Amino acid sequence: MSIPSFDEETCENSSEHGTCYTFEPSDDVPASGRVFLDMAEHILHTDDGPQRRPKVVFRFFGLSVHGRWLGAPVSTASFFPNWVDHRPGVSMLSLGEPGHLVIDLGRVLAEQPAHIQQAVDSVVTALAQRFLTDLRVARYRHDQAAQRCESASRAHELAAMRKDITRLRYRRARLAADEADALLAAVRIKTHS
Questions:
Q1: Percent of the chain surpassing pLDDT 90
Q2: What are 145-153's contacts with CB under 8 Å, separation 24+?
Q3: Are 42 and 78 in contact (CB under 8 A)?
Q4: Interacting residues of 112 by C-beta distance below 8 A, sequence separation 6+
Q5: Which segments within the chain are labelled E, that is strand?
Q6: What percent helix, strand, coil does the chain show, rounded to 5?
Q7: Confidence class of residue 67 from pLDDT cuts 50, 70 and 90?
Q8: What is the mean pLDDT of residues 68-96?
Q9: Angle at CA 55, nearest 5°, toward 50 and 59?
Q10: How far is residue 121's CA from residue 116's CA, in Å, rounded to a whole number?
Q11: Does residue 2 surpass a pLDDT of 70?
Q12: Distance CA 169, CA 114 (A)
């Protein structure tokens, strides 16, 4: 099956880990439009804890398939390692790990006839395979890990600051309690004399 021709326009999508493609119909896939692709992650829950894997978010603009105007639907393509999931998908490697892409066309496209879904699935699969290069996935993981580390550092600093504030409040409250105890003791002594 031939796929539509794609022109990448890296300047159009301003997200740090994204790009934009304009695609024209082919004989087998009569789909045209523009799509923004952005890197994302999905989480696999395993016995060893959560593991992150790449996902691509597709935001279509002016999507037309078989002459039917579909507007601006959103779809995703998620990479699943072979050891996790046995849902059908297109085989691929991500950072040397064998697996497959699982396509979610989204609510708008899922309500369309099968031939339209098949055409969009072909576009999403072809673009996801082109977009999910090892270098792009590795850069995204690096940046996300750095961002999570920065967030954790800020949360730690905030917790330390809150602990210092709480310690100061406790000292003040303890001092006020000691003063109140001394005042009560003095009043008792004075009233008993």
A1: 51
A2: none
A3: yes
A4: 65, 68, 70, 120
A5: 5-8, 18-24, 31-46, 49-65, 68-71, 74-81, 90-94, 97-104
A6: 40, 35, 20
A7: confident
A8: 86
A9: 140
A10: 8
A11: no
A12: 66
Q: Which residue has the tokens 């005042």?
A: 183
**Rounded CA gap, 124 and 70, in Å?**
15
Longest distance between any two alpha carbons in the chain, whole Å:
108
Work out the angle at residue 158's Cα, subtended by the Cα atoms of residues 156 and 164, and round it to the nearest 5 degrees.
105
What are the structure tokens assigned to 25, written together?
């119909």
The number of helices, as runs of H, and strands, as runs of E, in the chain is 3, 8
Q: Which two three-digit tokens encode residue 151?
A: 């967030």
- Tell me the two tokens of residue 112: 């369309």
Taking the CA atoms of 173, 176, 181 and 184 in sequence, report the sign of the dihedral they define.
negative
Question: How far is residue 44's CA from residue 81's CA, in Å, rounded to a whole number?
Answer: 10
- Determine the Cα–Cα distance for residues 29 and 62; give it in Å rounded to an integer: 16
